[in-house]
Amino acid sequence: MQVRTPVVAAAVIAVAPAVWFTHLAVVYALVPLSCRWDSNLPLHAATAVAVAGVVGSMWAARRARVEASGRTDTDDGGRQDGTVHLLAVLLSGYFAFLVLMTAMATVVVDRCA
Amino acid sequence: MTDELQRAERDHLAAIEAAWSSKPGLPGFFSAVNHKQIGLRFIWTGVAFLLIGGVEALLLRIQLMRAENTFLGPDTYNQLFTMHGTTMMFLFAVPLLEGLAMYLVPLQLGTRDLPFPRLNAFGYWVYVAGGVLLNWSLLTGSVPDGGWFAYVPLTGPEFSPTRALDFWLLGVTFVEIAGIVGAIELIVVIMRFRAPGMSLGRMPLFVWSVLVMAAMMLVAFPFVIVASTLLELERKFGAPFYDAAAGGNPLLWQHLFWIFGHPEVYIMLLPATGVVSAVVAVHVGRRIVAYPLVAASLIGIAIVSFGLWVHHMFAVGLPVMVLGLFAMASYFIAIPSGIQVFAWIATIWEGRPRWTAPMWFVAGFFFIFVLGGITGIMVASAPWDLQAHDTFFVVAHFHYVLIGGVVFPMLAALHHWFPKMTGRRPTEWAGKLACAVMFVGFNVTFFPQHWLGLQGMARRVYTYDATLGWETSNLWSTIGAFVLAAGFAVFFVNLAHAWRRGAVAGGDPWCGDTLEWATASPPAAHSHDVIPVVGSRSPQWETGDPGLPDEVVEAVAVTGTSWQGRREVIRTSVLDARPQAIVSLPGPSYWPVISAVFLTVAVVGVLVNWVLLAAAGGLALLVSFVSWGESNRRAAAAGEGADDGGAADDADVLAARRRSAAGAMALHTDPGRSAVSTGAWLTVAVVMVLTGGFAYAYYYLRLGASAWPLDGTEPAALGGPLLAAVLVVVALTTASTIERGFLRGLLGWVALAGASVVQMVSLVASDADISADAYGAAVVTLTAWALIVAAAALAVRGLGVYHAARGQWSLSLVDADRPIWIGAGVVWLVMFAVVHLTPRVF
C-alpha cells in the first residue's frame, strides 16, 4: 500500500484511534446491559474485537512502511515521504496499549456498582 | 553581478513589494488582511484581555485574603470569577496562541500569507465583537455570574433571567466562530502551501502542533456552539432541552460542554508544547530528539483528549465501571505527554544550552507543568476526584497546568519571537528577572491552594469562617498573586521598552533553524523575497536534498514574482510538498470588518428583541457577503488577485479545466484540489460536527425518556419529509455538475429549494411545538438546522448559476459548490433519519 493521497494518509493514521474511541463508547454503552445480563462477556468480546482491530492496523501500517521504503520514487522523480507510515505505526502501538489498559476497568470493577 | 542583473533584481523586488503593500493610516488599519498584521492584532488583543482577566483575579484574591472579608459582595464575586474564567479561557489563551500561529506558520512554511486573507481578517473582527459583547455587561451592570462553564439550571431562564447570560452565550459563540475560521486557515496553509520540498516529515514541530490544534478546534468548538445554541433557544423560545420537567436533562449541558471543554485544555497546551520544541531547539543548538515520536505524541494527545470529558463529571452519579474506563484513559494520556518532556530533556542533555530568557521560561514550564501533570493524574482517579471535586485543589491543579503549561511557553514565545516581530531585542536580564519573579509568585499563589483544597475549602465561595484555619494559606496566596502580577508587569514593560529602544535584532538574532529566521526583522509584507526550497527539517542549519527534480527547483526560483501585480504564492501537494500551482491571493478590503459589524448588529438585534434592528442587520449582512464575493471575482478579473486563483479570467480557467490542461506549476486550474475546495471541505466538516452535536443531544434526550414522543402520541406524518428527502437525493446527483453547465446546476437548485418548501410545510402541518417538551424542541431544532444549511447551499449554488448564466464564472463558487452541496445533502439525510425514522424504530 502506498500512501499517495491525503485521504488515504488520514485513514491510515486514524484507524487505531478510531478503534480505541469506538471501543470506549461501546463499552460505556454496554455497562448497564452487562449488569442486567449478569455477565462481563459482552465487554470482553468488545475488547477482543478492538484489540484485533488495533493490532491489525499496526501490522498493516508497518507492512505499508516496509513496502513504501522499497519504492520511494514518486511520479516526477522526487522521493516519497514516509512520515505518515511511521506515525501510523507509532499511534497503533500506543492505542493498542490504551485499549488494553482501558479494558482493565472491565476486569477489576464491579459491573453493577 | 552585473549592473543589469542588479537592476533586474531590484525591479523584481520592487514589484513584489508593490503587490503586497497595504494602504496607510486608518484605511489601512480597517482594510488590513496580511497574516502578520492580523496575527499581531490577535496577539496584542489577547494580551489586553490577559490584563483584564488578571485584574479580575487580583480582586478575587484581595477578597479571599482575610476571613469574612467584605471587600466584594457575593454577587460581585460571582460575576468576577465568571468573567475571569471566561476571559482567560475564551478571550486570552486560544486567540493569542492562534494569533501566534497566524503570524509564524506562513513564515515557517516559506509561504507569503494565509490562503484566505480576507476571511482571516473577518475572523479577527468577529473575535473583537465577541470580546466586546462579553465585557459590555461590565459597563451595563448586568454581568454573567454562572461560572465559565455556565452549568444549567443555574444559567437557565429561571435562575438567570437577565440578558447577561444571553450576551455571554453570544460572545462565546462569536469567539468560537472566529477560532474556527482561523483553524480552517491554518489547516489549509499547512496542508497546501508549504515550501516546495517541505514534506510532512520536514515540518517544524511548532507547525505540527498548530496543525493538531487547528484540527481539534474544528471538532471541539462546534460542541460548545451547539450547547450555547440549545441554551439560548431555551432562554429565548422556551425550548426545554435542559429542563427535566419537560423531558430535558441538565446533564446534557455538561456532556456537550466538556466534550468541548476538555479538548480545549489541549487546544491551548499543544501549541504551547510546539513553542517549547521550537525554543529548545534554537537555544540548545540542535534538533529535537525523537522528532517522529514527538509528532505522534501530539496526535495521540489530541485524540485521547476527546475521550476524557467524562472525568469532569465523576461526581454526577455515573456507574463505577464507567468511571474506571475514563479514569484509565485519563491516566494514560500521561504517556505521550511524558514522551515530549523526555524528548526536550534529552535535547538539552545532548546539546549546548544557552540559558537565555526564553529558556528560563521553558525551565519554569518544565517544573510547573510537570507538577500540574502529577496532580492531574491524582484527580483522574475517581475516588480522589470525589474528595477533591470543586475544591481549591482543582483550582491549583488547573492553574499549574494552564499557567505553567500555557502561559510560561507563551511568554517564552513572545520573548523569543519579539525580535522577529519588531526588529528589536528585549533586554535579557529584564526577561530573566520577570521569569524569576513570576516563578516565585506563581508557586506562592497556587501551591498553598492544594492544601486549602485538601482542608475542604470549596472553590467559588466568596468568603469563609475564621475558625476554619484557611486564612494563612489564603493570605500567602494573595501575596503571591501580587508578586506574579509584578512579574507580568516587568515582562511587558521590558517588551514595551524594547519596542521603542531595544537593540536592533537583525534577521536571525538567535541563530534559529526554521524559515522565519530567513526573513528580515520585522519581515516585509511579502515575507520571503524568493520562495524557498526545503531539503531538511532545519533549513537554516543545513540545506539538504529537497528530493525534487532539478527542473522543478529551477521553476520555483522564478515563480511567485507578482506577475501583473498579483500576490502570488505556490500551492504544493499535501504529503510531499511538490509544487502544483501558482495561486494569487486577494489584497486589502473593507468587507471583512463591514460584514463583522453587520453580523454583530443582526445578532444583538435578536437578543434584545429589536426585530427591526435584527432584520436590518441581517439584510445588510447578506448584501455585504454578496458584495465581498463580487469584489473577489472582479479583483480576479482585473488581475489584482482573488481567493480563487490567478488566471486573467475565471472563464478561461474553466475552459482550461475542461481541456485537462492542468500541470505542475500551471496556474490554478485543477478542480477539487484548490485551496478554496480544501477550505470548503473543512467548513463542511465543521457543519457535520455541529450536526453530530444536535443529533447527540436528540439521542441523549431520547435514551433518557420512557416514551418518544414524550406524550405518547404518534410522530408526525412521514409523507412530506420522505418526499423532501427524495428531492434532496435528486439534488445531490448534481453535486459535481455546476462547472459543466448552469442548467444542471439550476436543476439541483430547484430540487433542493423544493425539498425545503416541502419540509417547511410538513413541519408547520405537524404542529411540532418547540416549547412544548424536549421532543418538540429537538425536532424543530434539527429540522431548522437542516433548512439553514440548505439555504446556505442554495445561496452558493444560486450565485454560481447566476454568474454562469451571464457567462461570468466565479471560480470560488465553483470550487465551493461541490463540498457545500454534498454537505447540505448529508445534513438533510441525517436529519431525516434522526427526526423521522428514529421514533418509528425505538
Could you name the key traits of this structure?
heterodimer; A: 113 residues; elongated; B: 842 residues; mainly alpha; Cytochrome C Oxidase, Chain A; 2 domains; two-stranded antiparallel sheet; 25 helices
Number of strands of chain A: 0
- Write down the secondary-structure element order of chain A: HHH
Largest interface, counted by CB within 8 Å of the partner chain's CB? A-B, 44 and 39 residues
Number of domains of chain B: 2
Per DSSP, the total helix count of chain B is 25
Task: Please give a quick description of this structure.
With 113 residues, chain A is mainly α.
Q: How would you explain this protein's 3D organization?
A:
The complex is a heterodimer of chains A (113) and B (842). With 113 residues, chain A is mainly alpha-helical. Chain A has one domain (6-108). Chain A contains three helices and no strands. Chain A has helices at 6-37, 41-70, 83-108. In chain A, helix 1 (6-37) packs antiparallel against helix 2, helix 1 (6-37) runs parallel beside helix 3 and helix 2 (41-70) runs antiparallel to helix 3 (83-108). The longest helix of chain A is centred in the first third of the chain and has 32 residues, at 6-37. Chain A is elongated, with a radius of gyration of 18 Å. Chain B has 842 residues and is an all-alpha fold. In chain B, 67% of the residues lie in helices and 2% in strands. Chain B contains 25 helices and five strands. Chain B has a three-stranded mixed sheet with strand order 3-4-5. In chain B, a hairpin with a 6-residue loop joins strand 3 and strand 4. In chain B, helix 3 (35-64) runs antiparallel to helix 4, helix 8 (250-284) runs parallel beside helix 11 and helix 15 (428-454) runs antiparallel to helix 16. Chain B is globular. The termini of chain B are far apart. Classes of the chains: A mainly alpha (113), B mainly alpha (842). Chains A and B meet through helix 1 and helix 3 of A and helix 9 and helix 10 of B.
